[in-house]
Amino acid sequence: MNDQSTNLRFLLWQKNVPRKEWLQKVANWFNGDLQRAREILNNETITKKELDFFMDNFHHNEDEIMEILEGDLLSKHNIWIFRENFLFLLEKFTIEGHRISDVISKIGINLSTYTRIKNNERKNPNSITIKKIRVFFGINQDTDLNDDPIFLNMEPIGIVLQKQWLSERIDKISGTEFQRLFPGASHFCAKHKYS
To answer: How many CB atoms lie within 10 A of CB 163?
Structure first.
């Protein structure tokens, strides 16, 4: 893995910047707006002007900045990607009031496996355990939980988290806006036999 957007998202994650503030932080780093920040975090090329602003304001030496822009910070910091992915998924799911022990049981893995992962005892789980996790969270089987840093994703991954995300947004839609959107949503549900 060697891309600027992953390294930038890693820096934000490492600094414990809340995900909802990532766009604003990157906009500040590169002197841009929120749309441009989203583009940068989705792997758009950083312009020379943006890079100059970043280098002048990020307060790191040039070697550190080049590593951010060209290196692989996950490897440099020895991040166990599977562990961070698994804990990220659990955290997002348990925020909704589910106890970790209940979630672990529903996934179908041993509490000892969870403890080993949480305690950073580096040993990637077997394919059966990974499949159970993938099925529980509705994650596409093309996603490699050992190598794909989904814990750095901007958008929710997996059906469970995507439904949760959508539900949270629906609750925030004003009555007027909801009435405007409802016919399309109703048509979609009828067309796909969700009604």
So the answer is: 12
pLDDT per residue as tens digits for the range 73-113: 999 999 999 999 999 998 877 666 778 888 899 999 988 88
Task: Give Cα 78 to chain centroid, integer Å.
Answer: 18
Buried b (16+ CB within 10 A) or exposed e, 119-145: eeeeeebeeebbebbbebbebeeebeb
Residue given tokens 């394919």 in the structure block: 127
Give one DSSP letter per residue of 51-73, joined into a string.
Answer: HHHHHHHS-S-HHHHHHHHHS-H
Q: Which secondary-structure segment (H or E) carries 167? A: helix 159-172
Task: Note the pLDDT tens digit of each residue in 132-163.
Answer: 999 998 898 889 999 999 999 988 777 777 67
Q: Report whether 133 contacts 155 (CB < 8 A).
A: no
CA distance 72 to 100: 32
Strand, coil or helix: 193: coil
Alpha helices in 71-126 (DSSP H): 73-76, 81-94, 100-107, 111-118
Do 100 and 92 contact (CB within 8 A), yes or no?
no
Residues 91 and 161: their CA atoms lie apart, in Å, by 11
